[in-house]
Amino acid sequence: MTTSKQQTYKGKILFLHGYTQNASLFYAKTSALRKKIIKLGYKCQYLNAPYVLTPSDLPTTDSLSKFGSSDQDDVTYRGWWVKLGKTNDGINMDDSIESLKRYIHQGEIIPDDENGEPSKEDEEDKKLPIVGLVGFSQGASFAGLVAEKFGELFDTTPLKFVILYSGFKLNTSKKSGNDKYDAYYESPSDSKLRYLHVYGELDTVVAEDRSLSLYNITKDKSDLLKHPGGHFVPNSKLYIDQVVNWIQSDGKPKELKQKEEKKVDDIDSLLEMMDNIGKA
């Protein structure tokens, strides 16, 4: 899913959806953020994960809303990896890494529908440098995994920033069976990558300690932004503006001010919180 081509862009930001979502669902849930980013002069490209989830991979229908997903019958649910035994141990992300590589070098875009044919990105858009990643939940975890070595992994320019909503560091201990990914988190000596970690105080899908797991190893180049809701991307003006201002900032990360007296900034945020509290 792509944004309008009615302007000249200075770079691209890739949006990576969460577990049991797809590009179209994530596109719909990040409309306010996307519109502000486009005004900054960036193209927003939403990508689909290559793994199609089967019914046995999904939580119960009543729980899909916890993941920011949909319980409609015609939705193709996707993931950046498939959980084995409902855990994140012993997983395989090779297909996700390869699909991102094909997008970068061939402009191949996976459709939402598992039976659909991949499309090709416009040649002019393909030339735009990828400056950042925006990920949610499992998509944020995948973004955090490939961020440091993005240039090396994909033979392209290094990223400038990543924005991780409800993200977490993958357990890469030998016991977890994910140790082959441990080196991905090692930061090159010349890295100038910046991180913004955003998480909800009422998130019960990715708890605070998990959201802080990646922050704890990137503190010197990270900012934290908390919101008072659950497992979703906050759409209120207060939090959108802070994220957009952070993208525009240069140099070392600066502390983001939390407006405690104004937890809920507008009616959209209030409605979103009411819809998610009790589900997440």
Looking at this protein, list some descriptive labels.
6-stranded parallel beta sheet; 16% strand; alpha/beta; Rossmann fold; 280 residues; 10 strands; two-stranded antiparallel ribbon
SSE arrangement:
Elements lengths: L10 E6 L6 H7 L1 H9 L2 E6 L3 E2 L25 E2 L14 H13 L1 E2 L9 E2 L2 H4 L3 E7 L1 H9 L3 H5 L6 E5 L28 E7 L7 H8 L6 E6 L9 H12 L18 H10 L4
Parallel strand pairs: 1-2, 1-7, 7-8, 8-9, 9-10
Antiparallel strand pairs: 3-4, 5-6
Helix pairs in contact: 2-8
For the biggest sheet, the summary is: 6 strands, parallel
Number of domains: 1
Structural class: alpha/beta
Helix content: 25-40%
Number of strands: 10
Please compute the radius of gyration using only Cα atoms. 18 Å
Beta-strand content estimate: 15-25%
Shape: globular
CATH class value: Alpha Beta
Instruction: Report the uncertain regions.
Output: 259-268, 273-280
The run of helices and strands is EHHEEEHEEHEHHEEHEHH
Note the gap between the termini: 27 Å
CATH topology tier name: Rossmann fold
According to CATH, the homologous superfamily is Alpha/Beta hydrolase fold, catalytic domain
CATH architecture: 3-Layer(aba) Sandwich
Number of helices: 9
Oligomerization status of the protein chains: single chain
Concise account of the structure shown:
This protein has nine helices and ten strands.
Structure description:
This protein has one domain: Rossmann fold, CATH 3.40.50. Helices cover 28% and strands 16% of the residues. The chain is built from nine helices and ten strands. The strands form three sheets. Strands 2-1-7-8-9-10 form a six-stranded parallel β-sheet, with helices on both faces. A two-stranded antiparallel sheet has the order 3-4. A two-stranded antiparallel sheet has the order 5-6. The longest helix has 13 residues, at 94-106.
